[in-house]
Amino acid sequence: MGCGASKADTPTKPLENKEGDMGNKASKPAAADAEEAFALPPVEGELPDGTQIIFVLGGPGSGKGTQCDKIKQDYECVHLSAGDLLRAEVKSGSVVGKKCEELMREGKLVPFAVTLNLLKKAMIESGGKFFLIDGFPRALDQAEQFESSIMPCKAVLFFDCPEEEMEKRLLKRGETSGRSDDNAETIRKRFRTFLEQSLPVKDHYGDRKICHVISAIPHPDVVYESVKQVLDSYNSPKKPTPAAVPASKPAQDATEEITLPPVEGSLPEDAQIIFVLGGPGSGKGTQCAQILEEYDCVHLSAGDLLRAEVKSGSVVGKKCEELMREGKLVPFAVTLNLLKKAMIESGGKFFLIDGFPRALDQAEQFESSIMPCKAVLFFDCPEEEMEKRLLKRGETSGRSDDNAETIRKRFRTFLEQSLPVKDHYGDRKVCHVISAIPQPDVVYESVKDILDRLGAPQK
């Protein structure tokens, strides 16, 4: 646990106990020595009322900078990277910069008084009110000193990533970055420093219920979906966006060129629907096949219905095939028409719908024109694993969309349009997220547990 590490290696909370007082005394000489040795200039001015701060934490190579870049595109915030400020100071050739460079080469933390001075100056000079501070605080005494001398933070984003993955990323970055601390020996020193001093910061804010731990293993776009969910929960200010055509509008335009046959009949009043969602190659079809063996349900795959329409050679099928080759979503009106027809013709009452809805407007249209779903099964799988599975399937499937280029287009489409569906049902507390990484039989155990709790009818 982080608390064990903090007693041995880092200062603990100064206001809570005697050990904390000792830790606070230990940090003062470091700050004082830094101010004397570095000749830190005083910071003039104050932050405006209503200022809000979010700390962005995580190990070296966990992707903090990448996520901050994405946040800046959507949110009205001032991004300050403690690391970038330090590197700028190093590049300036000042006495402070030279001393910082020496410490960074050794994998040590720069005295917090130096970083605090640079941060405070940058915040005041920016004129902003909403700050995203990346890579700080790196130790518990830094967090306490920042909050006592400036102001408490509003929330913390902590990007969680295994050491092996972070090292791999940093070594790759070192090939082109030119950063002196991107080498194997220094990287391992930085990991040790992070584990000893930075993890207690996570625990500290976790105790205050404002630390949000986000897995940094998936593709950055997937990680960012989790980030946005956290920021939106805090009403973080978004940048004004120009009026744009909704993502579904092009699809709607496409349906104007397709004559869809009317669907006759209706579903029984007590019909129940479960949506099965996940990225391409996440194993939705495999899990549905296992469910069908044990549960009395009608399985409808939106993808299979579309492919059957394509195979039929109809005008609708030909237009769908063209869109699928380009990695685009088929207009939801087409899919909705095929699904509704298949559901009514089946005569069933309990439906498992695989691969639909693929966008938020599809979910809303389905539920308003047919009926709300009972639950959602969402199979979570990293992009790298899904691509590997799809390429292997493409060797024998004969599917035109099982090739590397189209697969990547489908991933982008999924990230942009399908993940909001997960968030939508998550807000309604009916979305069950299941890891799709283990063997299918292991994944299915989680599926069965959920279905049984929902009262799904067994054969």
TrEMBL record:
Its main location: cytoplasm. It comes from the Eukaryota. GO terms for molecular function: AMP kinase activity; ATP binding. GO terms for biological process: 'de novo' pyrimidine nucleobase biosynthetic process; pyrimidine nucleotide biosynthetic process. One of its GO terms (cellular component) is cytoplasm. This is adenylate kinase. Keywords: ATP-binding, Cytoplasm, Kinase, Nucleotide-binding, Nucleus, Pyrimidine biosynthesis, Transferase. The keyword Transferase applies. It comes from Volvox reticuliferus.
